[in-house]
């Protein structure tokens, strides 16, 4: 692959110095005639406007553009040019939006929102192309990506030959990039079918001569090709962009997704060739992830842009809502104790669950990452089969990699607000707190529960300050979150902890009392009995 030249970078309008992203400071005042007040430093996010058709099956068109931009972390506004009735079988109907109303949508967005990149998809009539051209003359944007949608993957016509001359003569000369597939390239050129890489190169050059800055001929339909090869031409050099061809029929919307992902990367400030490479890799990854998902009865399914759908179905027994009562008997593992008693972490967890543990935390401070992940996966299987949540101590990466139910962090670990941003809204977050202030902060940062301790002196944590029953009570009374008590708790004192009688104290977390014993199951059973009795 050739290195991107400085000349190439400057030829891309997005690389001009005027396109450096700057946080904007907005000043507002709510009082008339008073000077503006600084309310917040607000950051403008990259913005793509897609001008395209709606696809009722949500695989292509506007819906694909929205999903792709969201997945690429870019804001996407939408101007709808047509409403189509389509599914995985084909296109059953097309209803073009009147051109005046397309113009009205364009004006609404562009007169108000600063758009970085305009991406076009289905433009069903010559009149709509004209309206778009007028608007592009009036409003400045940094780049225009034209996906010249004419025929759907199913072979149905989405825009007829009437649009061809204004595409060739007016729209393409304004485009920074045009992305025809093989059929669209031959329609633009009025030439017979394109069937080889050599044909694609010739087509790219001829289309480049119509005026766009760059051309990408997409080779999804290239016959007898074991790879998915696209040809990129910048007026000087041809680039063969190659990815593995994913064996799937879920390719509905690949063209729209590729073009809007390129637009998204351009909007972030990437130069053209890197933007295309990143977008192509994204399409390949999404196709691979979605290759075995069934969406409909037809031959052309959509794919999963956010690369997430399968996670949810693969874990049907996962609890979506945190239940504070699960904190009753909270078992926290310790690799040293498991070694001492010569048991695997999975056996330890199995004993705890069978004895009545209501939530499990894996706290592995000296285990290799690969081994930890493997153990976490086996423990998760075990926990899921018993409906018991699994929490990972500190290691957000391991929690995400095995799709555990949550994470527990301490005051010197990653801040809860950052953890929440990383793990998303559904995972449980617990945080260790010793003071009412820390408990308040945990709540503000959207933790789900707090662990308060050490209640009694303990050997499992070095230099741990003991808060005692008084400290525990004070934290509970000031905490809006449910609390689990931790530190030196076992059969002999669990009752006294629960007896402090504060409603949000939901249970006790134990390490040694369960795992530094000969039979985890027996100890768990005894503790569960004590706690259930105390909680009555
Ligand atoms: N089965 C596949 N595996 C990997 N990439 C593919 C596959 N099919 C299409 N692509 C890629 O998806 C992008 C869109 O191409 P294409 O399907 O030809 O566009 P369109 O949807 O407009 O017909 C291209 O980068 C192409 O190489
Ligand atoms: C509304 C609309 N726009 C575009 C396409 C092209 O889809 P593909 O990307 O699979 O060629 C489509 N089928 N429907």
TrEMBL record:
Domain Pyridoxamine kinase/Phosphomethylpyrimidine kinase: 55-299
Keywords: ATP-binding, Chloroplast, Kinase, Magnesium, Metal-binding, Multifunctional enzyme, Nucleotide-binding, Plastid, Thiamine biosynthesis, Transferase, Transit peptide
UniProt-listed NCBIfam families: HMP-P_kinase (TIGR00097), thiE (TIGR00693)
SUPFAM superfamilies cross-referenced by the UniProt entry: Ribokinase-like, Thiamin phosphate synthase
Species classification: Eukaryota, Viridiplantae, Streptophyta, Embryophyta, Tracheophyta
A single BP term in Gene Ontology: thiamine biosynthetic process
UniProt family annotation: Belongs to the thiamine-phosphate synthase family.
Entry GO terms, CC: chloroplast
Molecular function terms, GO-annotated: ATP binding; hydroxymethylpyrimidine kinase activity; metal ion binding; phosphomethylpyrimidine kinase activity; thiamine-phosphate diphosphorylase activity
Pfam families cross-referenced by the UniProt entry: Phos_pyr_kin, TMP-TENI
Residues in coiled coil: none
CDD domains linked: HMPP_kinase (cd01169), TMP_TenI (cd00564)
Reactions that this protein is recorded to catalyse: 2-(2-carboxy-4-methylthiazol-5-yl)ethyl phosphate + 4-amino-2-methyl-5-(diphosphooxymethyl)pyrimidine + 2 H(+) = thiamine phosphate + CO2 + diphosphate; 4-methyl-5-(2-phosphooxyethyl)-thiazole + 4-amino-2-methyl-5-(diphosphooxymethyl)pyrimidine + H(+) = thiamine phosphate + diphosphate; 2-[(2R,5Z)-2-carboxy-4-methylthiazol-5(2H)-ylidene]ethyl phosphate + 4-amino-2-methyl-5-(diphosphooxymethyl)pyrimidine + 2 H(+) = thiamine phosphate + CO2 + diphosphate; 4-amino-5-hydroxymethyl-2-methylpyrimidine + ATP = 4-amino-2-methyl-5-(phosphooxymethyl)pyrimidine + ADP + H(+)
Domain Thiamine phosphate synthase/TenI stretches: 329-514
Signal peptide boundaries: none
Subcellular localization, as worded in the UniProt entry: Plastid, Chloroplast
Key word Metal-binding present: yes
Descriptive protein name: Thiamine phosphate synthase/TenI
Chief location category: plastid
Lipoprotein among keywords: no
Entry function: Essential for thiamine biosynthesis. Bifunctional enzyme that catalyzes the phosphorylation of hydroxymethylpyrimidine phosphate (HMP-P) to HMP-PP and condenses 4-methyl-5-(beta-hydroxyethyl)thiazole monophosphate (THZ-P) and 2-methyl-4-amino-5-hydroxymethyl pyrimidine pyrophosphate (HMP-PP) to form thiamine monophosphate (TMP).
Cofactor: Mg(2+)
């Amino acid at each position: 692959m050739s290195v991107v030249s400085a000349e190439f970078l400057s030829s891309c309008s997005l690389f001009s110095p005027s396109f450096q992203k700057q946080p904007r400071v907005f000043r507002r005042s709510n009082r008339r005639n008073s000077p503006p007040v600084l309310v917040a430093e607000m950051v403008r996010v990259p913005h793509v406007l897609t001008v395209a058709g709606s696809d009722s099956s949500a695989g292509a068109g506007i819906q694909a553009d929205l999903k792709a931009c969201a997945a690429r972390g870019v804001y996407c506004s939408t101007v709808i040019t047509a409403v189509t009735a389509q599914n995985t079988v084909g296109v059953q109907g097309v209803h073009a939006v009147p051109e005046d109303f397309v113009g009205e949508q364009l004006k609404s967005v562009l007169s108000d929102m600063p758009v970085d990149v305009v991406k076009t998809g289905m433009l069903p009539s010559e009149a709509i192309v004209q309206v778009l051209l007028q608007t592009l003359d009036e409003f400045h944007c940094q780049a225009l990506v034209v996906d010249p949608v004419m025929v759907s993957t199913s072979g149905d016509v989405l825009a007829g030959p009437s649009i061809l001359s204004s595409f060739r003569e007016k729209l393409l000369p304004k485009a920074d990039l045009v992305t025809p597939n093989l059929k669209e390239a031959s329609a633009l050129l009025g030439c017979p079918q394109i069937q080889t890489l050599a044909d694609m190169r010739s087509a790219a050059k001829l289309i480049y001569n119509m005026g766009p800055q760059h051309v990408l001929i997409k080779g999804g339909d290239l016959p007898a090709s074991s790879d998915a090869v696209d040809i990129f031409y910048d007026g000087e050099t041809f680039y063969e962009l190659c990815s593995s061809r994913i064996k799937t029929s879920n390719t509905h919307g690949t063209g729209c997704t590729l073009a809007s992902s390129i637009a998204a990367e351009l909007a972030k400030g990437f130069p053209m060739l890197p933007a295309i490479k990143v977008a192509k890799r994204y399409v390949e990854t999404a196709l691979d992830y979605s290759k075995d998902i069934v969406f409909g009865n037809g031959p052309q399914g959509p794919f999963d842009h956010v690369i997430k759908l399968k996670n949810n179905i693969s874990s049907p027994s996962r609890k979506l809502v945190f239940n504070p009562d699960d904190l009753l008997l909270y078992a926290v593992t310790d690799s040293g104790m498991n070694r001492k008693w010569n048991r695997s972490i999975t056996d330890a967890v199995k004993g705890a669950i069978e004895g009545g543990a209501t939530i499990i935390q894996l706290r592995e401070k000296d285990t290799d990452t690969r081994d930890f992940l493997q153990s976490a996966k086996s423990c998760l299987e075990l926990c899921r089969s018993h409906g018991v949540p699994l929490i990972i101590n500190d290691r957000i990466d391991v929690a995400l990699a095995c799709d555990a139910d949550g994470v527990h962090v301490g005051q010197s670990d990653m801040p809860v607000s950052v953890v929440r941003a990383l793990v998303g809204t559904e995972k449980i977050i617990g945080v260790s707190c010793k003071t009412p202030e820390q408990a308040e902060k945990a709540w503000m940062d959207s933790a789900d529960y707090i662990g308060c301790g050490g209640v009694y002196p303990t050997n499992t944590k070095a230099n741990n300050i003991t808060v005692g029953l008084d400290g525990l009570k004070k934290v509970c009374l000031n905490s809006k979150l449910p609390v689990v008590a931790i530190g030196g708790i076992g059969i002999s004192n669990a009752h006294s902890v629960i007896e402090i009688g504060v409603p949000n104290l939901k249970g006790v977390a134990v390490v040694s009392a369960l795992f530094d014993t000969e039979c985890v199951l027996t100890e768990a059973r005894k503790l569960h009995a004590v706690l259930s009795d105390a909680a009555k």
